[in-house]
UniProtKB/TrEMBL annotation:
Pfam families: F-box-like (PF12937), Transglut_core2 (PF13369), YccV-like (PF08755). It comes from Falco tinnunculus. This is F-box protein 21. GO terms for molecular function: DNA binding. Residues 493-590 form the Hemimethylated DNA-binding domain. Residues 1-28 are annotated as: Disordered. Residues 1-14 have a biased composition (Low complexity).
Length: 617
């Protein structure tokens, strides 16, 4: 079909049908151009044809050129078949030149591939700097086209393209977070009555999980589904309840007894039918704070469950308000005059405790001590978000396995987006970047901002400025990468090579080697703390940089490592930084790592062939 469609026009033929191209059949048959328009379009929309085929077909004659017009069905179908996820961006397709959209998306893909390919070479030896994304911020193509190509790279099947996937993920992470921050700032600038608690929770969720498919529309749809279930229960109790009308939620229900019926129905659906509950067993899991995970797992912490509970109640005409109660977030329900300042005019609701309704005294029993009246007051949506982000900040500080401190970094970004002049959190951010050895120029900018806000911080600021400047100078003095040849005499004791899957003899973890030294290169303090001298060969033996399956990076002595009898993929976030492919038995170093260890690839292949002679490779 593609070959026939690509043929050039032949000599004109006289007759009622007018000129015909070479798509014409013999005298007894029918040519392609003689077919009815709908059938012709159906053929041209066939998925075996490519864009180049359509382009060639449209050059053969006027009839086919009209059938393949830029704004027509053929190019729209070609666009849909190639990039189906992009159609959601076209709410009104009238007047869209699908040919031009196809070209723009194709060019955006080429640009994305060029940038991803450049990242490994530019940033292999360091963390991607804060200005490393500058060329992405000035893209000459629609951002959703660029993002779609990045997603195509991430979704490539198989175990190849690991380095491309690694940097595509970093770029996509950055792009989406920048867009979400912009949406958050726009949200915070709205009047408070237009700041939905649910939308705020979704924005926090999106920022901390930018690669997940989370959107307000889908979360709202799930909440609406729960609300409909509540209405069904409510209908069996009171068929004339005002919450059952089409305008429910637009007008608040004034009668307390009718409000109570709504809350009883909510408790029945949420806690009895759907089995929502507070996550007491795994309270400090960050998933409890993400609203889309709360809906999936049906569990959470007091504040996330309260946002869900409050949203459903308001959609049914019951006004509940958030209360920033210490140690346990609550909601309050007015039993007296609306807007009352008397804390005893309210019943307090514990969404974490299955919607239990509490008195003031019972609230104090809940946390085990007396609190002043100010803690029973209502808080704004911004203060609710502040507490949600504060919870994530505390979890980020507790993390021990994530050596990149991603959750802490993300939650600091969110907090400072809301409170950009908070000296305490600015200092924490500067110290964190300094500790990680990343973005020294940004550290200096943060410190300068802190000094302007609070001159009394000059001692801590001065210390960090001095050491950050030293770090920048050291980086300038660095020469090219050190190349390690196994043929050098000093490397003769190195037994293992880059890309081999190993097992730690003592701790049992699985890992992959991404670097080695002929002897321990760590400082005396590290050697003493790790008790290296207790090893039979001490520090005077080869040591290996390894990526461990738990996400950590370690420095292991040669005598503690052995070949893994059952090699498998190592699920480490940095695997693509060093390796381009997993063969099923070992990893292949990417170009940048191979430059540093030029003789390891052949040794790894020889080792694998010798050890795993069962023919797996």
């Amino acid at each position: 079909m593609a070959a026939a469609a690509a043929e050039s026009p032949g000599p004109a033929a006289a007759g009622p049908g007018g000129p015909r191209g070479t798509a014409e059949a013999d005298a007894d048959g029918m040519g392609l151009t003689d077919l009815p328009g709908e059938l012709l379009e159906l053929i041209l929309c066939c998925d075996v044809l490519g864009a180049a085929d359509i382009g060639r077909v449209s050059c053969t004659c006027r009839r086919l050129r009209e059938a393949c017009q830029p704004r027509g069905k053929v190019w729209r179908e070609r666009f849909r078949l190639r990039w189906p996820s992009l159609l959601k961006y076209y709410s009104n397709t009238d007047g869209v030149s699908w040919l031009e959209e196809y070209k723009a998306r194709h060019n955006a893909g080429l640009e994305a591939q060029r940038i991803v390919a450049s990242f490994s070479k530019r940033f292999f030896s360091e963390h991607v700097p804060c200005d490393g994304f500058s060329d992405i911020e000035t893209l000459g193509c629609p951002s959703h086209f660029f993002e779609d190509e990045l997603m195509c790279i991430l979704n490539m099947e198989g175990r190849k393209g690991l380095t491309w996937k690694y940097y595509a993920k970093k770029i996509l992470y950055f792009l989406r977070q920048q867009n979400i921050l912009k949406n958050l700032k726009e949200y915070l600038q709205r009047p408070t009555d237009r700041q939905s608690f649910l939308e705020g929770a979704v924005l926090i969720d999106q920022y901390c999980n930018p690669l997940s498919d989370i959107c307000l529309k889908s979360v709202q749809a799930q909440v609406d589904d729960i609300t409909d279930k509540v209405r069904k229960v409510l209908r069996t109790k009171n068929p004339r309840h005002p919450s059952l009308t089409s305008k429910a939620g637009e007008v608040l229900i004034p009668e307390v007894e009718l409000q109570r019926q709504v809350l009883d129905a909510m408790n029945c659906v949420l806690y009895e039918q759907l089995k929502y509950k507070g996550n007491e067993l795994d309270y400090y899991n960050s998933l409890n704070s993400y609203i889309h995970q709360v809906l999936i797992r049906r569990t959470g912490i007091p504040i996330s469950l309260s946002v869900l509970y409050l949203t459903i109640a308001r959609q049914l005409g019951v006004k509940l308000e958030p209360v920033n109660f210490p140690s346990h977030f609550l909601l309050r329900w007015c039993q007296g005059k609306e807007g009352s300042t008397d804390i005893f005019d309210y019943t307090y609701i514990d969404a974490f405790g299955k919607g239990k309704q509490l008195t003031v005294k019972e609230c104090e029993y809940l946390i085990g001590h007396h609190v002043t009246e100010e803690f029973y007051g209502v808080v704004t949506s911004k203060e609710v978000l502040q507490r949600m982000v504060g919870n994530l900040l505390n979890l980020g500080k507790r993390e021990s396995t994530d050596q990149s401190y991603q959750l802490l970094r993300d939650s600091l970004d969110l907090y400072l987006a809301m409170y950009p002049d908070n000296v305490q959190h600015l200092m924490l951010q500067a110290r964190l970047y300094f500790h990680l050895g990343i973005w020294p120029e940004k550290v200096l900018d943060i410190l300068q901002h802190i000094q302007a806000l609070d001159p009394s911080q000059h001692g801590a600021v001065g210390y960090l400025v001095q050491h950050t400047l030293e770090h920048i100078e050291r980086r300038k003095e660095e020469v090219g990468p050190e190349v390690k040849h196994r043929s050098d005499e000093k490397h003769k004791e190195v037994c293992f090579s880059i890309g081999l899957i190993m097992k730690h003899k003592r701790y049992g973890y699985n890992c992959v080697i991404y670097g080695w030294d002929p002897a321990c290169m760590m400082g005396h303090e590290w050697i003493r703390n790790m008790n290296v001298h207790s090893l039979p060969h001490g520090p005077h033996q080869p040591f290996y940089n390894v990526l461990v399956e738990d996400g950590s990076c370690r420095y292991a002595a040669q005598e503690n490592l052995e070949y893994n009898s059952e090699p498998r993929e190592i699920p480490h976030p940095d695997i693509g930084r060093y390796f381009s492919e997993f063969t099923g038995i070992h990893y292949l170093a990417n170009t940048e790592l191979e430059i540093r260890y030029p003789e390891d690839l052949e040794l790894t292949r020889a080792t694998v062939q010798k050890i795993y002679s069962s023919g797996k490779e």
